[in-house]
Amino acid sequence: MLFLLSVAACFFLVIMLSFRYRDTLLPHVPSGIRKLLPATFNNYQPLSTFEQQIGAGMTSSDFDIEANLHGGDSRMGLDEAGTREVMEIMRRERVNFDQARLIRHNRILAQNGIDPSGMPIDAKAVTRL
Predict the structure, then answer these.
(1) Which of 15, 97, 116, 127 is the most buried (most CB within 10 A)?
(2) Confidence at residue 47, expressed as pLDDT on a 0 to 100 scale
(3) CA atoms within 13 A on the CB side of 55
(4) Are residues 129 and 69 both part of a single domain?
(5) Residues 38, 51: one domain?
(6) Which residue segment(s) compose the domain that 15 sits in?
(7) Which family does the similarity line name (predicted)?
(8) Do 38 and 84 have their domain in common?
(9) Of 51, 50, 57, residue with least CA distance to 89
């Protein structure tokens, strides 16, 4: 009885963890199986070109991707991981593109020990000579 209870607990733990980290796990699932999953699991589509990123709202007057298209930029598009992170911030926090970019940038600064003003957070850092 105790064995069956522990097996069931492990099974439910695996299900809960796979649901929690489904955005990380889905790119590794074969496309044939992915088609069988409900539409809620397939909500992310990679945006690999500037045209697709513009259509998804990843442009603004301050960050004009359309100028890249008209200027003949040879790159394929924006960074895929950064695009995904900005779109997730836009969806979760209900902010526009520029605000989501600022939130992401401030998080990156905080991870590197820098406050939003650009000054180091470390009290031992030398900022003047």
Answers:
(1) 97
(2) 55
(3) 9
(4) yes
(5) no
(6) 1-44
(7) Belongs to the UPF0357 family.
(8) no
(9) 57
Specify whether the CB–CB gap between 93 and 100 falls below 8 A.
yes
Q: Answer whether 83's CB lies under 8 Å from 58's CB.
A: yes
Query: Distance between CA atoms of 52 and 68, rounded to whole angstroms?
Result: 13
Q: What is the DSSP secondary-structure string of 8-38?
A: HHHHHHHHHHHHHTHHHHGGGS-HHHHTTS-
Look at 103 and 74; give whichever has higher pLDDT: 103
Provide the H-helix boundaries in the chain.
2-20, 22-25, 31-34, 50-55, 65-70, 80-93, 97-111
Give the count of alpha carbons within 13 A of 30, CB side only.
Answer: 2
pLDDT of residue 11: 93
The residue whose two tokens read 């180091």 is 120
Residue 117 backbone phi and psi in degrees, to 5: -80, -10
What's the CA angle centered on 64, arms 94 and 105, to 5 degrees? 50
